[in-house]
Amino acid sequence: MMGRDRAVTVMDGGMGRELIRRGAAERTGLWSAGALLKAPRTVVDVHRDFIAAGAMMITTNSYSCVPSYLRKVGMADRCAELAGLAGELAREAADGADEGVRVAGGLPPLEESYRADLVVSDAEARPMYAVLARALAPSVDAFLCETMSSIRESRNAALAAVGIRASRGTPVYVSWTLNEEPGTGLRSGEPVEDAFHALEDLELDGFLFNCTHPDAIEDGVQRMATLTDKPTGGYPNRFDVPANWTLDNQLVVREREGFETEQFVLAAERCVRRGATLVGGCCGISPEMIAALTASLAVGDGQG
User: Fold this and answer.
1) Are 88 and 139 in contact (CB under 8 A)?
2) Residue 199: alpha-carbon gap to chain centroid
3) pLDDT value at residue 252
4) What single DSSP character describes residue 119?
């Protein structure tokens, strides 16, 4: 799909929230991994709905296929099995759609999202990311190291994916989560520019920002445009996340006031004008919102 004067890939939206809405997952505990165990066909259905909405890149439902989630139910040894299943389900949905839909293998935080203070050690992270990358590799067209809150976290995930790229040629993208206030860097406080340069030697294939305020993402895309000609983009969430939040504590995540479909589409359009070539949504962004984005980009290019 074309957006303005360049090719733009529409990504999918928030898998976890959609699975919860359909009764296939819960907000605590295993979260989205629960659907792999009890409702795998619903996972395929959600992928298909995002594809029907216009998404040309879908991300595997592997976000909570990590030990910190699975050990809650005594299944920490099933990370590879469930990540592999997440890849297979996404591949099934993509293969059943029009030609050209790509599957991104999601490599997530190994502990909590947004919590740079909880990032696990390199010695623990690197072998686990290698396990996840190998499990996803047969099913995916790219790797997406997403919701990375610090340079160290993103480097550990990217190293595992780059190892697969060496043998399979699978592109590797990294997506950082940013502080809510534009221009204040990653959740760790590290500047976007420092994050880019810290991973420059890995020769990654694209750079994105996700799961944060759309204004922060727009700022990140603008900054990245001064650093690289490689694909850039972003996919915001729909929530305001309190400090020190974890999936299972009592802190409440609230929907961002005034961020409905229209505002989501406008935010994505601004990112495209800043140079983004990959746009979509994260937590709370529904297939209906992705459909509106797809229609807007098509109309903006004179195709609708």
Assistant:
1) yes
2) 18
3) 79
4) P
